[in-house]
Every structure is written in structure tokens, then in C-alpha cells.
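Got a spare moment? Tell me how you read both lines of this record:
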Amino acid sequence: MDIKAFKMDGLGNDFVIIDNRQNVNILSKEQIIKICDRNFIGCDQLIFIEKDEATDARLKFFNSDGGESGACGNGTRCVADLISKENGKKNIILTTLSGNLKSEILGNNLVTTEIGNAKIKWNEIPLSEELDTKNLNIKINDLNNHEYSGGTAINVGNPHVVFFVNEIKNFNIEKIGPQIENHKIFPERCNVTIAKVINKNLIKVKVWERGAGLTKACGTAACATAFAGKINKLTDNNTDIEFETGKLSIFIDEKNSIHMKGPVSDIKEISIKL
């Protein structure tokens, strides 16, 4: 099987994009895992573009473990840019499992996407039991084995938990990430963010992505972190979320809808031989 595809990334959060609008490629879970494997092609997520009668296209996201994801902010921005270059439109609407996402192409490889409203009720995350989602009281340990308790749960198309700490480098997210991702409190597992508030308009983060592991950047994690910062009265409505590879700008409007702006890469055409 020879598949024509595209490779793009948003701040290093990279994707293989397969266009199924003309020729439909049906892949097994094992084939998806193989494509995502960095010893083969390699990416954080695989994205399928499909036809949709009501919007510009329908997207399906798959993590590197082969499991489907309800949303991907950076992936949505990348595909919006790709489709804009195809049809010339500056406003793109894409259908996902989380609903219709509107993107605006700003030029100079900048794209903004409206992710929508965050869910913060315990059964919307979802959690396995009723808890205060602003403070789950989950215990994590730093590198000196000092115990920290916290965690704010947010769903922005997929479940996230955000820990606000004094110093990110004191925590080993590659150890903490899989522990919290698979915690019994999260029946659908979750994305894990360790965050440090620099000021009212800047948060630094490291992210462990559900089904993908340590990632250079994660759009929905940026949105979840900004919203968690707001409801905990740590940040304003305009917040930059800084990864090691750069920043995403998050704006929460008067209706509490979350907007994410950031760069996307150039489009690279690739061929996948399976």
C-alpha cells in the first residue's frame, strides 16, 4: 500500500495528515501505530481528513498508541491552514468529535482556532466519582520526594489535569505523566500538564499527552491550562502558554469560549509505504 500524505507541525507538535476525501485509506490500529513510530515515519498524532457536507471537512485524530482522540488543537490549526491553501478561504470550519471548530488564517503561518467552552463538571471530564474539579487533591512527588497535592481537571474536547507548581524542573513529568494518565479517577485516561505561572499573562508548561507521551507542544493542553489559570484566579483572559518550542496565545472571550493562536509549519508532502 502506497499512501500520499502530508507532514505538518505546530510548535513541534507534529502530525501525519492523510486526505481521505477522494481515495479512502482504511488503516488498522497496528498500521496507525507503525506510522506514528519515529523509527518509521513518526508523529504525535495521525489525522484523517474526510468529506463533510456541512463544513469544509471532517477530521479524525489518532494518538500514537492507535487510540482515537476527540480533539487536537494544533492538528486542527494545521489542517485549517492546509485546506485554506487549497480553497483560498481565510475562514475554515472543521468537524471533529468535539464539534465544529472555526479557524481563521491570519497569514505568515499564523492560525487561530476557537476551541469552544471548557467543561468542568466532574461527570463531563469525566471522573470516576464526584470530586471538586478545581482541586482533585491528587498527590505527586517532586525530585526531592516532597509531596504536592492538587490538580485542576478540565475537558476541552479531551480530558486534562493541570498541576500548578513553583518550579517545573523539580518534577519528572515522564514519571508523573503515565501515573496520572492512568489514575483510577480518570476512566478515559487524561492529558497531564505541569505548569508554572510567571505572571497574569504567561504560564510555562510541560505536557504528557494521553496516548502519545511527552510532547513538544499540545494545543488543547494550552487551552486547558489557560482556563485552569483563570478559574483559579491566577491569570487573565489573555494568556500565553509557553512550551520549550515556543508560545501559544490563548484568549477567553466574554462567553468563556477559548481561542488559540499560534504558528504552523510549512506543508511537506510524503509517501507512506505499508
In short: The radius of gyration is 18 Å. The chain has a mean pLDDT of 96.
